[in-house]
């Protein structure tokens, strides 16, 4: 009995299958909102990443200048530093 029922259900599902018109099927407002949110989050992440990379580069630049200044002081070249006045 269950085999007959499952076979009849399969035939009924195959006969009832219709494909929607691709011109009328759209993601709608929900799809637009989700796509907009994904794009906005991506832009915010890129901005944050650029800010963090810039900060790391500035820190490395300052560290290199400090090391150069300390090396110059240890050599005794106090007047021949990076060319920037001390504050």
3D structure, described in words:
Helix content is 72%, strand content 0%. By secondary structure, the chain is mostly helical.
Helix and strand topology:
Layout: H1 2-16, H2 28-75
Structural class: mainly alpha
Helix content: over 70%
Shape: rod-shaped
SSE ordering? HH
Put simply, the count of helices is: 2
Q: Main β-sheet, in a few words?
A: none
Unreliable runs, pLDDT <50, ≥5 residues?
none
Distance between the termini: 94 Å
Compute the CA-based radius of gyration.
34 Å
Which strand-content bin applies to the residues? under 5%
> Residue-averaged pLDDT, rounded?
83
How would you concisely characterize the structure shown here?
By secondary structure, the chain is mainly alpha-helical. It has helices spanning 2-16, 28-75.
Features:
mainly alpha; 87 residues; single chain; rod-shaped
């Amino acid at each position: 009995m269950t085999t007959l029922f499952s076979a009849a259900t399969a035939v009924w599902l195959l006969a009832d299958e219709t494909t929607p018109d691709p011109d009328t099927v759209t993601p709608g407002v929900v799809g637009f909102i989700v796509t907009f949110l994904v794009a906005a989050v991506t832009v915010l992440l890129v901005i944050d990443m650029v800010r963090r990379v810039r900060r790391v580069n500035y820190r490395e630049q300052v560290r290199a200048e400090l090391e150069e200044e300390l090396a110059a002081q240890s050599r005794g070249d106090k007047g021949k530093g990076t060319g920037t006045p001390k504050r």
